[in-house]
UniProtKB/TrEMBL annotation:
Chain positions recorded as substrate binding sites: 24, 135, 160, 295, 297, 320, 322
GO BP, sorted A to Z: peptide metabolic process
Family: Belongs to the mandelate racemase/muconate lactonizing enzyme family.
Species classification: Bacteria, Bacillati, Bacillota, Clostridia, Peptostreptococcales
Cofactor note: Binds 1 Mg(2+) ion per subunit.
Enzyme Commission designation: 5.1.1.-
Residues that hold Mg(2+) according to the record: 190, 218, 243
Domain annotation Mandelate racemase/muconate lactonizing enzyme C-terminal: ranges: 141-239
Keywords annotated in UniProt: Isomerase, Magnesium, Metal-binding
Name by which UniProt lists this protein: Dipeptide epimerase
GO molecular-function terms, A-Z: magnesium ion binding; racemase and epimerase activity, acting on amino acids and derivatives
Cofactor requirements of the protein: Mg(2+)
Enzyme active site: 162, 267
Length: 361
């Protein structure tokens, strides 16, 4: 099964409502999609989210990386020697993890097809159903409470609340949500780097003192500030999850050696796809540290790949794969089934896509 062509296209999917974090506001998913064809007539699909404020990857940079650096390295290689294909992909250029992720995902789709099995089974086959949280954007407390009530009515048992925009209001936000939905629902909060270390400690301790029952706090401080992250981890009871601080397996190893966080958030757009995400899982297994699988604003192609990874690995215990649920429509045929909070991983070969429209390419 030799790689014959790599095509790049775009997908645009409006969100149900604007997605707001401490870093950005987005109204629609505008991602890059990849289609890899082989000499045997097989087709693999991938997707990259240009999340410039987190990964530094823009649409143009992703397309340029794939067409100018990755594609020339891969054409003619045989999927049967998957290790060689992965080594060539991941050494084709530095950074540009989202562009690499799109190609890596399409290659894993082909890898599954080559071996006649759904990818999650080839990677471990731990489970074929996972339960995701849903994100509540950072807005005025009243609006967030209303959005939380709606999410609970849809059956979500865990909400991921965006905070970190104006620190003093954050406690009010969480209090308002707790008052609105009670204590049967788990709340995880994500500051997206919005606090300074001492400010984070103060806010989180106040949340603890008020009994707001926070399951975990995601990336309270700046991504590069590993010492600041450790300061927070050492000084609050709420478990700290490293997100923007961990892109590579080396980042994960350093964070865990330092004991700078209690948990790691794996996202394919940060790792450059499944190949390196598996290495982070191994690092986390060594340290017995549980992981979250997360996503950027991604549609069903790359989130299906993340779901396969989560289905394979028991070290992934927390699921934040709500990208498709935030969308107002689903233009992708096949792949995982996103039934609100319940995600079912397909039993078809590879990632399980069927007839993705050529109009994207
Ligand atoms: C969509 C997902 N639930 C999420 O919240 N991801 C963010 C980054 C999303 C983005 O800005 O594209 C995160 O975990 O920080
Ligand atoms: Mg996050």
């Amino acid at each position: 099964m030799k790689i014959k062509d790599i095509q790049v296209g775009k997908i645009s999917v409006p969100l149900v409502k604007p997605f707001k974090t401490a870093l950005r506001t987005v109204k629609s998913i505008e991602d890059v999609v990849v289609k890899i064809t082989t000499d045997t007539g097989h087709v693999g699909y991938g997707e990259a989210a240009p999340t410039a404020v987190i990964t530094g990857d823009t649409t143009g940079a992703i397309i340029g990386a794939i067409n100018e650096y990755i594609k020339p390295q891969l054409i003619g290689l045989n999927i049967e020697n998957f290790e060689e294909v992965m080594l060539k992909l991941h050494s084709s250029l530095i950074k540009n993890t989202s562009g690499k992720a799109a190609v890596d995902i399409a290659l894993y789709d082909l890898f599954g097809q080559l071996h006649n099995a759904p990818l999650y089974k080839l990677l471990g086959g731990y489970r074929n159903e996972i339960i995701t949280d849903i994100t509540i954007s950072v807005n005025d407390p009243d609006e967030m409470a209303k959005d939380s009530i709606e999410a609970v009515a849809r059956g979500y048992k865990t909400l991921k609340i965006k905070v970190g925009k104006d620190p003093q209001k954050d406690i009010e936000r969480i209090k308002g949500i707790r008052n609105a939905i009670g204590y049967d629902i788990k709340l995880r909060i994500d500051a997206n780097q919005g606090w300074r270390p001492k400010e984070a400690i103060s806010i989180l301790r106040r949340m603890e003192d008020k009994g707001l029952e926070i399951e975990l706090v995601e990336q309270p401080v700046l991504a590069h500030d590993f010492e600041g992250l450790k300061l927070v981890t050492d000084n609050v009871g709420i478990p700290v999850l490293a997100d923007e601080s961990v892109f590579s397996p080396r980042d994960a190893l350093r964070i865990l050696e330092m004991r700078a966080a209690d948990l790691i958030n794996i996202k394919l757009m940060k790792t450059g796809g499944i190949y390196n995400a598996l290495k982070i899982c191994s690092v986390a297994e060594v340290y017995n540290v549980e992981c979250m699988i997360g996503c950027m604003l991604e549609s069903k192609i790359s989130v299906t790949a993340a779901a396969h990874l989560a289905g394979a690995k028991s070290i992934i215990t927390k699921i934040d794969l709500d990208g498709p649920s935030l969308c107002s429509q689903d233009p992708i045929n096949g792949g995982a089934i996103f039934d609100d909070y319940r995600i079912t991983i397909p039993e078809e070969k590879g990632l399980g896509f069927t007839n993705i429209s050529d109009a994207f390419f």
